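ugh ok fine here u go
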Amino acid sequence: MSKSTNRHGTIVAAFGRHYEIELADGSLATGYPKGKKSPFAVGDEVELTVDGQITGHGPRRSLLYRSDAYRQKLIAANATQLLLVVATDPSFSDMLLSRALVAAEHEGLTTTIVLNKCDLTSALPAARKLLAPFIALGCRVVELSARFDPSPLLPLLAGESSVLVGQSGMGKSTLTNALVPGAAAPTRELSTALDSGKHTTTYARLYRLPNDTCPGGTLIDSPGLQEFGLKHLTAQEIEFGFAEFRPFLGQCRFRDCQHLAEPGCAIKEAMAAGTIHPRRLDHFRQFTSESRHGSH
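structure:
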């Protein structure tokens, strides 16, 4: 990123192989990659020619992405905070939460779980119960109803580059609209028959948050997802992503313990003692099995 004749900016939206780029002067330009691959993500700081060809990106401070045996999907570059959006209704996957937490830990992102639609009080106890293992970990959970009052989240957004991640129907776009006046992110009715949301956001977009409420903050809204593969991480990296495992790592009888049926497993002993939640150990075993066998 050195040629003075080229322009510099930040990718603020990604549409397949085309990108919307906010230039240094605040104007917008359209950019496209040089080859067939699109190695860029929303949040990337890039250089582009006058005709819009992106010639490279600057050093990344973080890159959040998911992957399976076949491909990887970039979510956001240079984020500092992951906002995991779940809702009282429709139901959400606690396993997907564990996956995203591992990926965020690997990239050094702080994490906050946002429990949305708390005005649906009848569904609140079940949602809180599903979040209990994460709360026990010390995960920060913010309860709100994006439709009525997003203010509980505001103190956490100033000076941060936050990315919203969650399943479809959790209310990410509604939350974006509430936090960013004029964002007008599209929202649609839920498909209650399938107990899952219809995809509303089909591409990621970066918004600059109002200076009066969140000075220096940006927000990236991403498409809803149902899976979050961790194929790009080793079993050891996945293991380290489970914060409650760390005090016990290296204490198992066998150095290559997979925390399955091996005798003298410190992780299983910690679970038996109530220090590690059984559901979280189930998640770990699922993730490392996928890592070894190439599924998901």
